[in-house]
Design goal:
With about 350 residues, the protein is an alpha+beta fold. It folds into 2 domains: about 5-65 and about 325-340, Orthogonal Bundle (Hypothetical Oxidoreductase Yiak, Chain: A, domain 1); about 75-275, 2-Layer Sandwich (Ribosomal Protein S8, Chain: A, domain 1). It contains 12 helices and 13 strands. It has helices at about 10-25, 30-45, 55-65, 95-110, 130-135, 190-195, 215-225, 230-250, 255, 280-295, 310-325, 330-340, and strands at about 5-10, 75-80, 85, 115-120, 140-145, 150, 160, 165-170, 175-180, 205, 215, 265-275, 325-330. The strands form 4 sheets. The protein has a 7-stranded mixed β-sheet, sandwiched between helices. The protein has a two-stranded antiparallel sheet with strand order 1-13. The chain has a two-stranded antiparallel sheet with strand order 6-7. The radius of gyration is 20 Å and the shape is globular. GO terms for molecular function: 3-dehydro-L-gulonate 2-dehydrogenase activity.
């Protein structure tokens, strides 16, 4: 007998076709449905289930509620040199983010560096998607988004900050080094996943309603008091990322987004750097190789610990899931399949 928290195995092909079919039935055209389905599937394939298969039902609900305008296209607001500001017009976040990344790369090709601020957009799902997109094309990438209020600043009990994910990426060999991190110790998607599975967090992740430090994801989600990564440092970085997102995009801040009915109309920044324009370009790949080789020689705390650079475990998970199928919580997959019967 199974329960809602048991796992089912879904192939990449089945997941992508299911997503695409549901998106088409909810009004997306063939091109948009295919791209969005591919993003949600790839995120899941890479082991980022919280912003892949687990997040798909919420994306559909946002479409149905009108928070995501499926026919909207981003529009240029202003530009100067290598900087452009765009309005996402509340369109699908992943599609707006792909457009912004492509635009930033085009600007970088021309100016060496390109910066795109995107206002009035939706959740980009996995920010690392756009880091991989740029890095695989040969660019350094820096990007971030603000969010609705979900984290207290250091020393406070009430939430005033978003956990404002930050992405840093660069090409490495045939793949990339990609850091994708929220400003909270654990992303809310990771805590929601742990709560669904009845698991505790590996380290303290925030406070419960009584103000006690906790590794219980359910208690932290209820209190809305997640722990800033690096304590006061993460809180400060969250604040600055929000301010810079507002300045560079001309969009809403975290506290303004939080007045809305749901988390949408967020502000995002996409920066691409064309490494081929640098004077030391010919030496860059060798320098990165030397740094990673030295990094891999770290002494692990025990024999079972593998020292990996940001993004390296993603490659291992991708290969494993391609071979064995993608593990999905049965309750999540049942909810998704339910959309096919509507």
């Amino acid at each position: 007998m199974t329960n809602g928290n048991s796992m089912v195995i879904v192939s990449k092909t089945e997941m992508q076709s299911t997503f695409e079919r549901i998106l088409l039935s909810n009004g997306l055209n063939e091109e948009k449905a295919k791209i969005c389905a591919d993003i949600f599937t790839t995120n899941s394939l890479d082991g980022i289930y919280t912003h892949g298969v687990n997040r798909f039902p919420r994306f559909i609900k946002y479409i149905k509620s009108g928070f995501v305008k499926i026919d909207a296209e981003p529009s240029l607001v202003s530009k100067f040199g290598g900087i452009e500001q765009w309005n996402g017009n509340i369109g699908p976040g992943p599609l707006n983010a792909i457009h912004a990344t492509e635009t930033a790369m085009k600007l970088a090709n021309k100016h060496g560096i390109g910066c795109v601020g995107m206002s009035n957009t939706n959740h980009w799902m996995r920010g690392g998607t756009y880091g991989w997109q740029a890095a695989k094309a040969g660019f350094v990438f820096i990007g971030w988004t603000n969010t609705m209020i979900n984290m207290p600043t250091w020393g406070a009990t009430d939430a005033k900050l978003g956990n404002n994910p930050l992405v840093l990426a660069l090409p490495f060999q045939n793949e990339a080094i990609v850091l994708d991190m929220a400003m909270s110790q654990f992303s809310f998607g990771a805590m929601e996943m742990a709560a669904l599975k009845g698991e505790k967090l590996s380290v303290v992740g925030g406070y419960d309603r009584d103000g006690h430090l906790s590794n219980d994801p359910k208690a932290i989600l209820e209190s809305r008091r997640s722990m800033p990564v690096g304590y006061w440092k993460g809180a400060g970085l969250s604040l600055l990322l929000d301010i810079l997102a507002v300045i560079l995009s001309g969009g809403l801040s975290t506290h303004e987004i939080s007045k809305e009915e749901a988390e949408y109309r967020v502000s995002q920044v996409f920066i691409a750097i064309d490494m081929s324009k640098l004077g030391n370009y010919s030496a860059i790949s060798g320098a990165i190789e030397n740094i990673i080789n030295d990094y891999h020689q770290s002494n692990p705390i025990n024999e079972s610990t593998q020292i990996t650079f940001p993004g390296e475990r993603v490659l291992n998970t991708r290969n494993k899931n391609l071979l064995n199928g993608i593990p999905v919580l049965r309750s999540i997959w049942d909810e998704i399949i339910g959309f096919t019967n509507e």
